[in-house]
Amino acid sequence: MPEEAALAREAWLNAGGEIHASNIVWPESVDLIVDALLGTGLQQAPRESISQLIDHTNSHPAPIVAVDIPSGLLAETGATPGAVINADHTITFIALKPGLLTGKARDVTGQLHFDSLGLDSWLAGQETKIQRFSAEQLSHWLKPRRPTSHKGDHGRLVIIGGDHGTAGAIRMTGEAALRAGAGLVRVLTRSENIAPLLTARPELMVHELTMDSLTESLEWADVVVIGPGLGQQEWGKKALQKVENFRKPMLWDADALNLLAINPDKRHNRVITPHPGEAARLLGCSVAEIESDRLHFAQRLVQRYGGVAVLKGAGTVVAAHPDALGIIDVGNAGMASGGMGDVLSGIIGALLGQKLSPYDAACAGCVAHGAAADVLAVRFGTRGMLATDLFSTLQRIVNPEVTDKNHDESSNSAP
């Protein structure tokens, strides 16, 4: 037995604690189970004897508090390769571990608590390779506007997509961009979509997508977003081929990513926003591999495609060169519904137009997106949340200098 473990054992016995064999019948009257089976060095599935203890612990009705990390959860990745403790609370120490913020972490950590153990001064002097971003950081990125600013100061954004039957995708992206503060938003889409989009959101400028309108729009635009509802037929392919040579910031999502997987290229002025399925196609691997180490595969996306990669999911990961890596610690299960990605594309596109760097725009956009959803989850729950519901609170989220007592109370109590 290691010396530290032996000392802890002795302290436990001296305090009146008891030690029993693991295969005895556990009493039903246990008030609390403390999980300290495995630590942060775990790199693989727990061995069988430990797995049996984990399963036994999970089947007991008593609440479980995990020390530092739930046993079976990998601290570096958030993967669960085998049995894992399903904690009600996790108390982690000194520093937050990446695996507590992404991957399967939210399914097993319960309520997460952090204590620096009095090492705040020392920690402040340490460099970290990974940043954690939450709603508190929005004021760093999104400053109050100058009173004399005008719409041209806040970005001219072109959004391309909305093939037959997918006008909703492009409409959500367009409105999200407006709600996130874009100065002017032009949508290029199928002619059949023009009237419905203008009726739903008259602040949008909507035109038929042709080679002439695309050429003129690319000259006009500060930022391009392409992909929502684009489709993978000739109509969408031709538009994407034209956009490839755009030299200003651009964001590719949805079908633009599926087409990129077929004809890969590397561009440093591009943000890509794949979900795990799209990321798997882009990297030629399985979704299971992507989810086994989300931070690693986000970096792989940057290495292969350049620019900034946003790997969406619980604990979204944002990666860029040189070695910029962030985990987005907002959002909830209500966001697992159609259209949420389209809204995110519009938000990030708008922030690119407001002169944030691609990495900052991606991080701030993901935080605003998740924080808006968290406010809704507190008010109404996660089941039944729609992508368009985010518009009701997004404007407040992207103006962090505004004090709104009712809204802020909801935000602060969000998961």
From TrEMBL:
<protein>
    <recommendedName>
        <fullName>ADP-dependent (S)-NAD(P)H-hydrate dehydratase</fullName>
        <ecNumber>4.2.1.136</ecNumber>
    </recommendedName>
</protein>
<feature type="binding site">
    <location>
        <position position="341"/>
    </location>
    <ligand>
        <name>AMP</name>
    </ligand>
</feature>
<keyword id="KW-0067">ATP-binding</keyword>
<comment type="function">
    <text>Catalyzes the dehydration of the S-form of NAD(P)HX at the expense of ADP, which is converted to AMP. Together with NAD(P)HX epimerase, which catalyzes the epimerization of the S- and R-forms, the enzyme allows the repair of both epimers of NAD(P)HX, a damaged form of NAD(P)H that is a result of enzymatic or heat-dependent hydration.</text>
</comment>
<dbReference type="InterPro" id="IPR000631">
    <property type="entry name" value="CARKD"/>
</dbReference>
<dbReference type="GO" id="GO:0110051">
    <property type="term" value="P:metabolite repair"/>
</dbReference>
<feature type="domain" description="YjeF N-terminal">
    <location>
        <begin position="1"/>
        <end position="125"/>
    </location>
</feature>
<dbReference type="GO" id="GO:0005524">
    <property type="term" value="F:ATP binding"/>
</dbReference>
<keyword id="KW-0520">NAD</keyword>
<comment type="similarity">
    <text>In the C-terminal section; belongs to the NnrD/CARKD family.</text>
</comment>
<keyword id="KW-0521">NADP</keyword>
<keyword id="KW-0547">Nucleotide-binding</keyword>
<feature type="binding site">
    <location>
        <begin position="312"/>
        <end position="316"/>
    </location>
    <ligand>
        <name>AMP</name>
    </ligand>
</feature>
<feature type="domain" description="YjeF C-terminal">
    <location>
        <begin position="134"/>
        <end position="401"/>
    </location>
</feature>
<dbReference type="Pfam" id="PF01256">
    <property type="entry name" value="Carb_kinase"/>
</dbReference>
<dbReference type="GO" id="GO:0046496">
    <property type="term" value="P:nicotinamide nucleotide metabolic process"/>
</dbReference>
<dbReference type="Pfam" id="PF03853">
    <property type="entry name" value="YjeF_N"/>
</dbReference>
<dbReference type="InterPro" id="IPR004443">
    <property type="entry name" value="YjeF_N_dom"/>
</dbReference>
<dbReference type="GO" id="GO:0052855">
    <property type="term" value="F:ADP-dependent NAD(P)H-hydrate dehydratase activity"/>
</dbReference>
<feature type="binding site">
    <location>
        <position position="342"/>
    </location>
    <ligand>
        <name>(6S)-NADPHX</name>
    </ligand>
</feature>
<comment type="subunit">
    <text>Homotetramer.</text>
</comment>
<feature type="binding site">
    <location>
        <position position="229"/>
    </location>
    <ligand>
        <name>(6S)-NADPHX</name>
    </ligand>
</feature>
<comment type="similarity">
    <text>In the N-terminal section; belongs to the NnrE/AIBP family.</text>
</comment>
<comment type="function">
    <text>Bifunctional enzyme that catalyzes the epimerization of the S- and R-forms of NAD(P)HX and the dehydration of the S-form of NAD(P)HX at the expense of ADP, which is converted to AMP. This allows the repair of both epimers of NAD(P)HX, a damaged form of NAD(P)H that is a result of enzymatic or heat-dependent hydration.</text>
</comment>
<dbReference type="GO" id="GO:0052856">
    <property type="term" value="F:NAD(P)HX epimerase activity"/>
</dbReference>
<dbReference type="InterPro" id="IPR029056">
    <property type="entry name" value="Ribokinase-like"/>
</dbReference>
<dbReference type="InterPro" id="IPR036652">
    <property type="entry name" value="YjeF_N_dom_sf"/>
</dbReference>
<feature type="binding site">
    <location>
        <position position="169"/>
    </location>
    <ligand>
        <name>(6S)-NADPHX</name>
    </ligand>
</feature>
<feature type="binding site">
    <location>
        <position position="275"/>
    </location>
    <ligand>
        <name>(6S)-NADPHX</name>
    </ligand>
</feature>
<keyword id="KW-0456">Lyase</keyword>
<dbReference type="InterPro" id="IPR017953">
    <property type="entry name" value="Carbohydrate_kinase_pred_CS"/>
</dbReference>
